Amino acid sequence: MNAMSGLPYDLAVIGGGSTGIVGAKTAASLGARVVLIERERTGGDCLWTGCVPSKTLIASAHAAAAASTATRYGIDVGPIAVDFTAIMRRVQRVIEDIEPLDSPAALEQAGITVLTGHARFTGEGRLEVDGAVVPYRRALLATGASPAVPGIPGLESVPYLTSDTLWDLRHLPGRLVVLGGGSIGCELGQAFARLGSEVTIVEGLPRILPREDSQASKVVLRSLQADGISVRTGQRAVSVTATGDDSGTLMITDGETTTHVAFDQLLVAVGRAPNTGDMGLEAAGVVLDDHGFVVVDPMLRTTNKRIWAAGDLTGHPQFTHAAGVHGSLAASNAVLGLRRRVDLRAMPRVTFTDPEVASVGATTEAADLADGLRQITRNHRDVDRAVTDGNIDGFARLAVDGRGRVVGATLVGPRAGETLPELTLAVRKRLRTRDLAATIHPYPTYADGPWKATIDDVQDRLSSPRTRRATRWLGALARRRVRVTI
Fold first, then answer.
1. By the number of CB atoms within 10 A of the CB, which of 22, 89, 149, 405 ranks highest?
2. Residues with Cβ within 8 Å of residue 171, at least 6 apart in sequence
3. What is the pLDDT of residues 81-131, one digit of tens each?
4. Hey, which residues does 176 pair with through a beta bridge?
5. 483 sits in which H/E element
6. pTM higher than 0.85 for the full model?
7. How many CB atoms lie within 10 A of CB 381?
8. Residue 243 near residue 158, CB atoms below 8 Å
9. Residue 458 φ then ψ, to 5°
10. Rounded Cα distance, 404 and 454, in Å
11. How would you class 151 by CB atoms within 10 Å of its CB: exposed for 0-12, middle for 13-18, buried for 19 or more?
């Protein structure tokens, strides 16, 4: 390929996932001349292997679970038959339905030049894309991350699955072992169990969902076990032995006892590693940390003052919503010379198990609360919508500071992620419990949980000796002002 002619691009975006697409569109909307370089297909993990296919699969699994448990609502639907091939065809149809929004044609319609190929920095203000020189003024790294693969002896002897390759399955695994009890492992493990697989989840830490409130972990554990999943926590993977084309045995240990778990498919879900290799970053003066993530400042600028980075490769929370917002922020900083900073304080996250776990802000774990913070909890037994739905094994929990401001929240229950935005706004805007308590909420909804928690806090504050003295004084003053004649 020959060198590209013309003026340098105002912004060269490397990576066509959520971060890169939003960043490129933001820059183009600001009048910048933008090129987006993607070596495979635009849309990224979210479209092809992450959010879209996983939530589509989870929807099918939820339908199967709802049908199989309908008798508790007085509904008898008879035997349930799962057509896994049809489910995976639907996953592909949903991807195809959304794909045009992220396609090169849509990006070019937005005024963005799209190049397909591998980008590599070759000099100051210069990139090469499969041999073609691409000059730029500013650049945005948005290459994301890929499933991490642990160095377990024998793992390469079986065609193990990851969240990237899982979607090629066309037949339901009889026995599925999931290595990793984080969000991805729990979501996919539960989905496959509800569709009929015999599932075992292996987690090296003492509990699943280790980043979440421990009570949330317990609620999800009960739900996974109710779905027939064997959950092995505190177990380290020792080795893998192949026994067939896809099948094998995973050896695990708790430090004292060794156990062998047979599988027909092994799913590795132990985290994600940044895609920062073979890009010429060292030559470009872009520094990586000890884990391979790009080092950025609060404005998402790298150690090269002409290059910004955003999304999963930075070590910031690896969520699509974070990637999009940070991609837009980095792009506007780059093309306009702004110094807007990322705000990680109010970063929402949702684990899409049944029940869902939604969290934002400071921890709500009682043992980990910082000085001056306290915990307020409302269980779903006190939420009428949860009672009517028969979903009382959930809760709303807030972390509140000494001034009554909401600084963190954990919600566990159906569609918990849909209730979280109000609390995310509260954390971001430093709203007090009295602000939420004084806001009328629709009844009956699951939002009653956090709302009642804020009411509890306001009532508790009103019962303090100082407040009670003040209210008694105001009451006495009001009585003196109003004389009643009988």
1. 22
2. 84, 85
3. 999 999 999 999 999 999 999 999 999 999 999 999 999 999 889 999 999
4. 199, 265
5. none
6. yes
7. 11
8. no
9. -65, -45
10. 9
11. exposed
